[in-house]
């Protein structure tokens, strides 16, 4: 069963959002990817959000750029946790996306991550951590992932100064 939905406002967001898909794939979490635009396909957005929980989704990762209302509108139409990823924009380099997503008024939260690739990957890791609360096998995978990261950094060396 699909557990996480990865949605984005345009296929131009895929370069960033594929980082979320890669993480979920590596952890063996079933996910789907969809283009859903808040302002260009509002009916699709409502339908996606309204049916997500009944379809068994546990979380939605939503990436958008510019006036990035996709995560907020999804959150308005579903009780599922929505994880927002600000996609870098052409003129304001994603600061507009970040502020649009993070500044949700009180009552409808969107968990907001860093701009770009790191945010997409971290949103997926956060989804894994949420799912791991009830799936011990997933928790073990997450702990092993952290251990590998730790070992990579511990093995780092720096050049001698002549
Ligand atoms: C937003 O507008 C999308 O999330 C994308 O980041 C941005 C540009 O979309 P395109 O013009 O590339 O379709 O809705």
From TrEMBL:
It is an enzyme of class 5 (isomerase). Pathway: Purine metabolism; IMP biosynthesis via de novo pathway; 5-amino-1-(5-phospho-D-ribosyl)imidazole-4-carboxylate from 5-amino-1-(5-phospho-D-ribosyl)imidazole (N5-CAIR route): step 2/2. Signal peptide: none annotated. Residues 2-153 form the PurE domain. Substrate binds at residues 10, 13, 40. Keywords: Isomerase, Purine biosynthesis. Pfam families: AIRC. InterPro entries: PurE_ClassI (IPR033747), PurE_dom (IPR000031), PurE_prokaryotes (IPR024694). Its EC number is 5.4.99.18. SUPFAM superfamilies: N5-CAIR mutase (phosphoribosylaminoimidazole carboxylase, PurE). It catalyses: 5-carboxyamino-1-(5-phospho-D-ribosyl)imidazole + H(+) = 5-amino-1-(5-phospho-D-ribosyl)imidazole-4-carboxylate. GO terms for molecular function: 5-(carboxyamino)imidazole ribonucleotide mutase activity. One of its GO terms (biological process) is 'de novo' IMP biosynthetic process. HAMAP family: PurE_classI. Belongs to the AIR carboxylase family. Class I subfamily. This is N5-carboxyaminoimidazole ribonucleotide mutase. It comes from Aquitalea magnusonii. The lineage of its organism: Bacteria, Pseudomonadati, Pseudomonadota, Betaproteobacteria, Neisseriales.
């Amino acid at each position: 069963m699909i557990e996480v939905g990865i949605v984005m406002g345009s296929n131009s967001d895929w370069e960033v959002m594929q980082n979320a898909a890669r993480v979920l794939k590596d952890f063996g979490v079933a996910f789907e990817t969809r283009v859903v635009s808040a302002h260009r396909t509002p009916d699709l957005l409502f339908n996606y959000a309204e049916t997500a929980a009944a379809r068994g989704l546990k979380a939605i990762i939503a990436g958008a750029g510019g006036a990035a209302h996709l995560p907020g509108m999804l959150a308005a139409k579903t009780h599922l946790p929505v994880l927002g990823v600000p996609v870098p924009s052409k003129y304001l380099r994603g600061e507009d996306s970040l502020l649009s997503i993070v500044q949700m008024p009180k009552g409808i939260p969107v968990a907001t991550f860093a701009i770009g690739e790191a945010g997409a990957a971290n949103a997926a890791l956060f989804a894994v951590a949420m799912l791991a609360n009830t799936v011990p096998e997933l928790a073990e995978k997450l702990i092993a992932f952290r251990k590998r990261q730790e070992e990579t950094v511990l093995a780092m060396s720096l050049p001698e100064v002549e």
